[in-house]
Structure formats: structure tokens, C-alpha cells
Write a structure and sequence with these properties.
By secondary structure, this protein is an alpha+beta fold. It has one domain (98-369): Beta-lactamase (3-Layer(aba) Sandwich), CATH 3.40.710.10. Helices cover 41% and strands 18% of the residues. It has a six-stranded antiparallel beta sheet, sandwiched between helices. The chain has a two-stranded antiparallel sheet with strand order 3-6. A two-stranded antiparallel ribbon has the order 4-5. Helix 9 crosses helix 10 (207-215). It is globular. The N and C termini lie far apart (121 Å). The model is unreliable at 11-101 (pLDDT under 50).
Length: 371
């Protein structure tokens, strides 16, 4: 009896211990214990990430804390890793600002980007013209009209100078100018001369400066834009149209042929040659000195003999550049539209310079004549 009693007690203790094991395992993975002792296990982070993905807009702290959960888990479990990749903890919406580059350019949408050419240029559209003879020496996708961004400002400068408006007259940045472009050091109420506004427009591509030049044109913006389009017709720019003074509108379009004509015409204005190639300018605005730089690094570095230039960029146009430059004693008109990166358009200009310098004069052939 005593032996049976002992065996019964031992059997009871064994059964009790076995029945407790699952409960201990469950306790180690229970949510309450996780809060008390956070685990470094990746699947656990995925659970919190799923909760964060349903958070209300504005809960940025939770989202940032769980952003690491998108990395694949190193547990060897393929299903777990796949779920980790599928977790979406943030939502990125397309930006409305045309200068963010969040949307593909028109040239990219048309399949022009990435096409090969003999000079390995990174621009979707390129053109080289001898300014004296109008001979086209190189061309790539020149027959299409595309957005030209701030290259527009060359046309605006010609319109202002053609009207013979006093360059020393003081004009003021008002609320309408400020609405034309959100980011600018030319705050509302800033006074500057028409000359300074043109300089900032051409040199540093200041959009508010360009807009206020148009607003202070006789008849205002509508008359200014009409004058720009009339000037384009006078220059034989048959594939061009202008809709605003700054170039922020994608409706400002031109072909490479038209831009070569516009650059050549702009070069006839001493003020445009001077202001577009001005390296930098310091102005006192609201009692504080502000330094504006030329947007063309080739001007700032002095790598080329540049007689006139203008850069441009909106997402619809890509990175753009037009220049008049003297290479090997020849005045050349250079057009580059929809370049891949910020520096690529300048690198393309250097490639053209190197190509032209290495050519034997007897090897230079005209592809056609710019009409």
C-alpha cells in the first residue's frame, strides 16, 4: 500500500508537470509579456508595422519607428520574409510642385530618353549650330516641340528690352508675384530695379523676378505673354508657344531649331549677354545681404568661353541648357533638353566642346541649314 501510494503521488506530479509546459510556452509569447520585455524578433516588428499602416494621417512618429520593419527578416522563413516586404508603412503621394521632378518628362514619355548618339550625350534632345553660317553640325531628336522651362526667360528679356522700358525704374515684388512661385528670397515688398530683376531672372533664374517683369509690362501679364508669342513669330519660331513669363508652365514649348534661333537672337542684346553670364550677385534684401549664383556651373568655373546661356528645369522639361559658346574660334549655338541629371547637361556641353576641338576643320560637315 505504501509503495502504491508513492507511485500514485509520483504519477500525479508527472502529469501535473507535463500539463504545465504548453502554458509556459504560451506565456512567453503572450502580448502582455511582449510589452514588458520587447523582443528583437523581426516577425514581432511586422505585427507592430501592420498596426502602424492603419494609423490616422499625421501619426508620423509611429510610422518612423516601424519603418525598419520593411527589411526582410533574417529568420530563414521564406513566408515571413515575403510578408515583411509586403508591409506598407508609409504612403508617398505625387508632389504638385513642378520643380520636384516627381513625374516623368514629356521627352521620357515619348520614348526619347536614353537613345544613343555618336557623342554619347545624356540629353534626349541636342543640337549644335554654327552661328555664323547657320549650318547644323549635330542634331538629336530636334524635330519635336518640348517644354523649355526657364529658357523662357530669354524671350521675356528680349520683350522687355524691345519695349524700351526704363531699366533703372524701381519695381516691387507684390503678393501676385509671390503666388507665382512659392520659394524665393525676394519676399513680398522687396524693391528692386527692372535691371536687377532682369539680371536675377537670367543669371539665377529667379522666378519671381521674371514674373514681376511681366506684371510691370504695359498691359500686364496677358500683354507680356502676347508680346512673347509675337516675338517668336517674328523670329520664325514656328513650333513654339509661350504661356507664362517664368517657364514654370509646361505649356511653354519649343523645338531645338526654334531655341537655336532664339539664342542667336538673344545674343544680339548686350544686356542679355552680360546678365546671363554674370557669375554672382549680392543684394541687400530686408536689411540682409543675399548672394545669388549663376545656375550654370560652366559660367562659374570658366571652363568655356560662353557668350550667353540659360538653364531650365521643371519635371515636364527635365534638365535643360542653351548656350552660345566660342569653340576653336567658331561661335556655336548649343541646345540640350531633357538631360538625365543636374550635371549631365553641362557635361554634354563639355563633350561637344571636346568633340569640336578634336575635329579637323576639313572634316566638319553641315547636316543641313537652319531655316
Amino acid at each position: 500500500m505504501r509503495l502504491q501510494s508513492r507511485l500514485g503521488v509520483a504519477l500525479w506530479m508527472t502529469l501535473f508537470a507535463v500539463s504545465c509546459i504548453p502554458d509556459a510556452a504560451i506565456a512567453q509569447t503572450s502580448p502582455s509579456n511582449q510589452k514588458q520585455a520587447p523582443s528583437k524578433d523581426k516577425p514581432k516588428q511586422n505585427q507592430s508595422a501592420n498596426k502602424a499602416s492603419t494609423a490616422k494621417p499625421g501619426s508620423t512618429n509611429k510610422t518612423s519607428k516601424t519603418s525598419k520593419a520593411t527589411k526582410p527578416a533574417k529568420t530563414g522563413n521564406a513566408n515571413t520574409a515575403k510578408k515583411t516586404k509586403d508591409v506598407r508603412v508609409t504612403v508617398t503621394r505625387p508632389a504638385n510642385n513642378a520643380t520636384t521632378g516627381s513625374r516623368p518628362s514629356f521627352a521620357t514619355a515619348m520614348g526619347l530618353r536614353g537613345q544613343h548618339d555618336d557623342l554619347s550625350l545624356k540629353s534626349s534632345v541636342a543640337m549644335v549650330v554654327n552661328q555664323d553660317t547657320n549650318d547644323v553640325l549635330f542634331e538629336k531628336n530636334t524635330g519635336v516641340s518640348l517644354p523649355i522651362a526657364s529658357i523662357t526667360k530669354l524671350m521675356g528679356a528680349m520683350v522687355v528690352l524691345d519695349a524700351d522700358l526704363p531699366l533703372d525704374e524701381s519695381i516691387k515684388i507684390n503678393a501676385e508675384d509671390a503666388r507665382s512661385y512659392g520659394k524665393s528670397r525676394l519676399a513680398t515688398g522687396t524693391s528692386l530695379t527692372r535691371r536687377e530683376a532682369m539680371l536675377l531672372s537670367l543669371m539665377s533664374s529667379e522666378n519671381r523676378a521674371a514674373y514681376t517683369l511681366g506684371r510691370n509690362y504695359p498691359g500686364g501679364i496677358p500683354a507680356f505673354v502676347a508680346a512673347m508669342n509675337q516675338k517668336a513669330r517674328d523670329l520664325g519660331m514656328r513650333n513654339s508657344r509661350f504661356a507664362d513669363p517664368s517657364g514654370l508652365s509646361s505649356e511653354n514649348v519649343a523645338s531645338a531649331d526654334d531655341l537655336a534661333k532664339m539664342v542667336s537672337a538673344s545674343y544680339q542684346y548686350k544686356a542679355i549677354r552680360e546678365y546671363s553670364t554674370w557669375p554672382d550677385l549680392t543684394m541687400v534684401i530686408n536689411n540682409r545681404p543675399q548672394t545669388f549664383l549663376n545656375t550654370n556651373r560652366l559660367v562659374r568655373s570658366g571652363d568655356m568661353d560662353i557668350g550667353l546661356q540659360k538653364t531650365g528645369f521643371i519635371s515636364a522639361a527635365g534638365k535643360c541648357l542653351v548656350m552660345q559658346a566660342n569653340i576653336n574660334g567658331s561661335p556655336l549655338l548649343l541646345v540640350f533638353l531633357d538631360s538625365v541629371g543636374t550635371q549631365s547637361r553641362f557635361a554634354d556641353a563639355v563633350r561637344v566642346k571636346d568633340w569640336y576641338q578634336q575635329m579637323d576643320p576639313s572634316e566638319i560637315r553641315s547636316l543641313r541649314r537652319l531655316m
